[in-house]
Specification:
Elements (H helix, E strand, L loop, with lengths): L3 H9 L3 H14 L4 H13 L3 H14 L5 H12 L3 H14 L4 H13 L3 H14 L4 H13 L3 H14 L4 H13 L3 H8 L29 E5 L4 H7 L1 H8 L3 E5 L5 H5 L5 E3 L9 E4 L3 H4 L18 H11 L6 E6 L9 H4 L13 E5 L6 H7 L5 E3 L9 H9 L3 E4 L3 H8 L4 E5 L21 E5 L7 H12 L1
Parallel strand pairs: 1-2, 1-4, 2-3, 5-6, 5-8, 6-7, 8-9, 9-10
Helix pairs in contact: 1-2, 2-3, 3-4, 4-5, 5-6, 5-7, 6-7, 7-8, 8-9, 9-10, 9-11, 10-11, 11-12, 13-21, 17-20
Length: 477
């Protein structure tokens, strides 16, 4: 159909609304034309109109049950709706019709991985590669699985294969950088990490008209804007480079997230602000590019020579609010983090693991939100105090004051670890397998970001029982 070309142009230009209306009108006019559905359904998926997309996918399947395409779309849509078992069922039916359909095999692998069946997922990814070995996405997915299985050599090999097929596969380049950083190959790792701005769904470089800082040579008296780019914990952790810039004579402005503003203003002899857009600067640099510019390696990680200061009045105020135990040690914990964090499923720990510790310690949960399962358990016990409901807790000045009042902190890999480390509070860090790159690989010594952190790692994926048992022994000792 000649008129389809207009809709394809809308689709290529990502003008999904116009493309949807265009193909929808054609489908109403020619309801038996299966080709039209193959354009309309992806347009609806791109707009997250999953209910409508599913309706048309079912119509496509009913038009021709000897064609696998309708089933594949039904699988993709249900995957997007997090109905993974349903998605898998549709996709498996599709390969009964055509065992060599690349998209079906690829999406089965992706779905199996989501269901935690990595061995089977690898099998289907390899089958997809046998059908078409010129698609970088299949090797990216294989790399991701091997990274999850902590075989970083195989992970990097597959990422490199993906990049050899598509030199602009920035997802794979970014993934390689994280593997290299995990293995403490900081030179190559941070170099590749600099391409993160080209990765899908990554925040763009913030200021278009300010020159990028490309060297720390001759920066004395230069006005330099350093801006936060990722999580609150990242801002605390890598803020250690701010003083290095100041020591080189730079006039630094540090743009931070609102919850950190008052806390970090107290720590640095430079302007700390929420919005530096109206000022003039010679250079700008995202905070997490500073390790690259300073040529960070395992020996020269900047130490926190002067621990961050808390607001003394807030510390006293929270001492009264908390009603600290005089007979037990007071321990602050964080068991889950941002639900939108891509690897949140790895790191969160069910509250039930910490209930036995309440016999020996008074436990305070220092986080704003809880998963529903943990809330239900919390309502059945008086032995653990949840601070997330406190109206007095407003920002990191309050968080630091709470932490200061604890005898120690137990946490998964969240900003609480970096805050506690920066104010010299004893921390037990519970790490998943695999862990984030900054804590390195289990076979290597972790970089010394902080002097006061003890790391307890999972030996087996998804098994928190053993780390909690080890933690309990350390605490009681």
């Amino acid at each position: 159909m000649e008129q389809i070309k207009t809709g394809i142009i809308y689709l290529k230009n990502k003008n999904y609304s116009k493309a949807e209306n265009f193909f929808l009108n054609l489908v109403r006019k020619y309801p038996s034309n299966t080709q039209l559905y193959s354009y309309l359904i992806p347009v609806m998926i791109s707009q997250r109109k999953f209910k409508d997309a599913l309706t048309f996918a079912e119509m496509l399947h009913n038009l021709n049950k000897n064609n696998e395409l309708g089933l594949i779309y039904m699988g993709i849509i249900n995957y997007s709706l997090e109905n993974y078992s349903v998605a898998l069922g549709h996709l498996e039916k599709s390969i009964l019709i055509n065992p060599k359909n690349f998209d079906a095999l690829l999406n089965i692998g992706v779905t199996l991985r989501k269901l935690g069946k990595n061995d089977k997922a690898i099998k289907y990814f390899n089958e997809a590669a046998n059908v078409n070995n010129k698609k970088s996405i299949v090797f990216y997915n294989l790399g991701s699985i091997w990274e999850e299985e902590c075989d970083l050599d195989k992970a990097i090999a597959n990422y490199r294969k993906a990049i050899s097929i598509n030199s602009r596969d920035y997802e794979s380049i970014h993934a390689i950088s994280l593997c290299q950083l995990t293995m403490q190959n900081y030179q190559d790792g941070f170099k590749n990490y600099e391409l993160r701005w080209l990765k899908n769904n990554f925040e763009s470089y913030r200021y278009k008209k300010i020159a990028r800082l490309e060297s720390i040579d001759s920066i004395s008296e230069k006005k330099i804007l350093i801006w936060h780019e990722q999580g609150l914990g990242d801002t605390i952790q890598f803020s250690r480079y701010i003083n290095l810039l100041i020591n080189l004579g730079a006039k630094v402005t540090f743009e931070v997230q609102e919850p950190l503003l008052n806390f970090l203003k107290r720590q640095f002899n430079c302007e700390v602000t929420l919005d530096a857009s109206r000022n003039n600067f010679d250079f700008q640099c995202p905070l997490m590019s500073l390790p690259y510019l300073f040529k960070m390696n395992i020996q020269n990680i900047p130490k926190i020579n002067q621990y961050f200061k808390c607001d003394d009045e807030k510390v006293k105020s929270w001492r009264n609010i908390l009603n600290l135990s005089k007979s037990k040690k007071n321990i602050g914990i964080a068991i889950s983090g941002n639900i939108n964090q891509v690897f949140e499923y790895r790191r969160k720990i069910d509250l039930e693991y910490f209930l036995p510790l309440s016999e020996y310690f008074k436990i305070f949960i220092i986080q704003k939100n809880l998963y529903r399962k943990d809330e239900i358990l919390l309502n059945k016990t008086d032995d653990i105090i949840y601070l997330g409901r406190s109206s007095q807790w407003k920002n990191f000045d309050d968080t630091s004051a709470i932490v200061k009042n604890m005898d120690c902190i137990i946490s998964i890999d969240t900003s609480l670890v970096h805050l506690a480390g920066s104010i010299n509070k004893r921390v037990f860090l519970l790490l998943s397998k695999p862990a984030d790159w900054r804590w390195s690989h289990e076979k290597l010594n972790s970089p010394k970001w902080y002097e006061n952190i003890s790391i307890i790692r999972q030996k087996n994926k998804n098994n928190w029982k053993d780390p909690i048992s080890k933690l309990k022994k350390k605490l009681i000792e």
